[in-house]
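Fold these two proteins, one after the other.
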Amino acid sequence: MPYSNATKQAFADALRKLLEQKPFAKISVSHICEECGMNRKSFYYHFKDIYDLMEYRMEREMKRVMEETMSQPDPEKALAQLYMYIMENQKHIRALSESAQFMALRRQMGEKVYQYFYNHLERIGMFKKLTMPEAAMAVQIIIFSVMGVAFDAPFKDEADVKERVATFMSVIRKCIGCDPMQVR
């Protein structure tokens, strides 16, 4: 169904463009259809409502971003890249947060970040002195921190992202007593 995917993407692109111009609450299905040159019947064939479209768009984007960021060998760069994406899309994420699916997307993202950090910390030997439940809890605490900073405190600019990442990594280094970037 390449045509269907192209149509869905056209609606998603139209929504993204409209979000640059006005708040989500002021965007209607008619605005989206007009922006991409398609009709309402086509819209409702693919999506049940605007929230469904927003979820589709953000789910696809988050999947892409998570694949890119979680392939980074350096956690500091991965975190900075993830936070930059979130900063650049704060309007869109805020609009999505009104959706019932937002928590599911946030949970999926958290699971990917959890697995990334768990694998990295295990690879550098961070868990040698911890039991499996302790290691899992340590990573869970890190992930709650990462996700809380990402979604609950808007970023101002790139400098703010860099400062928060540097501060986060500094706290982690101090808490664990070593540099999580160095393999032992």
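Now the second one:
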Amino acid sequence: MPAPAIKICGISTASSLEATIAARADYVGFNFYAPSPRFVKPDLAAALARAAAGRIEKVGVFVDAGDGEIAQACEAAGLDAIQLHGGESPERCARLAAQLGRKVWKVLSIASRADLDQAGAFAGAADLLLLDAKTPKGSLPGGMGLSFDWSLLAGWRSPLPWGLAGGLSSANVAEAARATGAPLVDTSSGVESAPGIKDEALIAAFCAAAQSG
């Protein structure tokens, strides 16, 4: 089984961006959700994006953001894809993809097998599904270091490309990839020394573990 693609999410400094590129990750994530400790304003995202240009794919993370806000961030940061982490419908995903000319990743929050049943509705509307752990009501929608039960994916066949998120770190990412067959793995808090503070050594260790197959 080939090693999964890797996304390091919540990058907000030049040093953590360089560490992500040096570790040969495939995607860098910029978080545009203001309540998150990983939030980046469009001007900072633009500066980071200039440094990343041509070296790594850039994904913007949004939670129920307005069309104008998403368009502004796409323009400022030259995003290759938008990751929608709220209650966005398949119809909205398809509309944003058409309007912005960007790939759309839709996050599905998973706590039970029934949550996977949402996937089919996004076939033809999104380019990729990202399966993340459902977080407690009233908390942030992601970046909490929580995992869901990977055995829920046994026998599941995604109707479109997909990735795995939620509580992944260098300690468990190789096991997660083997157990689920995930073609992409995504981490944020799993490579941090404190909320929003990326650790360059942890980024390197995560990527090495994921690439180990």
